[in-house]
Amino acid sequence: QVQLVESGGGLVQPGGSLRLSCALSGSILRFHVMGWWRQAPGKQRELVAAVTSGGSTNYADSVKGRFTISVDNAKNTVYLQMNSLKPEDTAVYYCNAGVSLTRGGPYWGQGTQVTVSS
Asked: Rounded to 5 degrees, what angle do the CA atoms 46, 23, 50 make?
C-alpha cells in the first residue's frame, strides 16, 4: 500500500516562504511522476507543480518563478519550495503520485494547510 505524508504547512505572511515535504512509503522510484496539487475553499483541486523522474517539470502559471518542486530519491521525499507567497496561495496542498505532468494518479496524501495572511 502506498502512503504519502505531507508536512510543512502553516501560517505565513504575504511575501514569506514555506517548504512542503511529502514522504513516500517505499521507493519513490516506483513512480515516474510526483506532483503537488492544491484546493482552496469553494474551488476545484488544481495542479501546482509536477516533476518526472527524468527531471522535467510543469508548473501552474500562477506559481511560475515562485515555487520549485524537487525530489530526493534517497529520502523518498518530494518537496515544494514556495517563495513570495500571496494570499491567493492559501489552500490545502496535497502530494500525489501522478500519471503524467498534467494528470494526477490514484495515490494522495492527507493534505497540509497553507494560509497566507497578515
From this structure: 35
Cα distance between residue 20 and residue 89, in whole Å: 13
Half-sphere exposure of 63 (CA within 13 A, CB side): 25
Q: How far is CA 97 from CA 9, 15, 84, 87, 115, in A?
A: 19, 29, 26, 27, 24
Using DSSP bridges, classify how beta strands 112-116 and 10-12 pair: parallel, antiparallel or unpaired.
parallel
Q: What is the pLDDT of residues 58-94, one digit of tens each?
A: 999 999 999 999 999 999 999 999 999 999 999 999 9
Q: Looking at the DSSP assignment, which residues form a beta bridge with residue 96?
A: 35, 108
Phi, psi of 101 (to 5 degrees): -70, -10
Task: Give the residue from 3, 39, 53, 8 showing the smallest Cα distance to 23.
Answer: 3
